[in-house]
């Protein structure tokens, strides 16, 4: 499985990758600290190569919502998006349900039960 992680905090990316790798060793990671760069990368692919996207919401320039709006417009097969955020705004969780590609909403920091839920849901598809 291939995982795309988008978070402006490099430490959060490192921690998430290490925690996920402890539980599931067969994953390949691609990371971006800028959502617009990640979107450009996805637009350049002939077809989506990712199974999972872990997405932060609160980022400068292009935030997670902006990314989702543009990602939905891509013609390629869509990966399952899991929001991983430090946002305390309960409206964000409700808003995430408006996006068909969003399969989960988790609070930071990433926890082992979140990882298990994400991986188990992937095996259903």
SSE blueprint:
Layout: E1 2-6, H1 10-23, E2 28-32, H2 35-44, E3 52-55, H3 64-71, E4 80-85, H4 90-96, E5 102-107, H5 112-122
Helix pairs in contact: 2-3
Quick rundown:
This protein is α/β, with parallel strands linked by helices.
Number of strands: 5
| CATH classification class | Alpha Beta
| Average pLDDT | 92
* CATH topology description: Rossmann fold
Compressed to H and E, one letter per element, the order equals EHEHEHEHEH
The quaternary state of the protein chains shown equals single chain
Ranges where pLDDT stays below 50 over 5 or more residues in a row are none
CATH architecture: 3-Layer(aba) Sandwich
What global shape is seen? globular
Rg calc? 13 Å
Structure annotation, total helices: 5
Strand order of the largest sheet: 2-1-3-4-5
Q: How would a crystallographer describe the biggest sheet?
A: 5 strands, parallel
β-strand percent reads 15-25%
Helix content: 40-55%
């Amino acid at each position: 499985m291939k995982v795309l992680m988008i978070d402006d905090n490099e430490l959060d990316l490192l921690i998430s990758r290490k925690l996920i790798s402890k539980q599931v060793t067969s994953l390949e990671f691609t990371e971006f600290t800028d959502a617009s760069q990640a979107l450009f990368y996805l637009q350049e692919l002939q077809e989506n190569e990712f199974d999972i996207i872990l997405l932060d919401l609160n980022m400068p320039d292009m935030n997670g919502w902006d990314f989702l709006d543009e990602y939905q417009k891509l013609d390629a097969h869509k990966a399952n998006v899991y929001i991983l955020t430090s946002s305390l705004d309960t409206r964000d969780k409700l808003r995430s349900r408006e996006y068909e590609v969003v399969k989960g909403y988790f609070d930071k920091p990433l926890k082992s039960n979140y990882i298990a839920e994400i991986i188990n849901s992937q095996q259903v598809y």
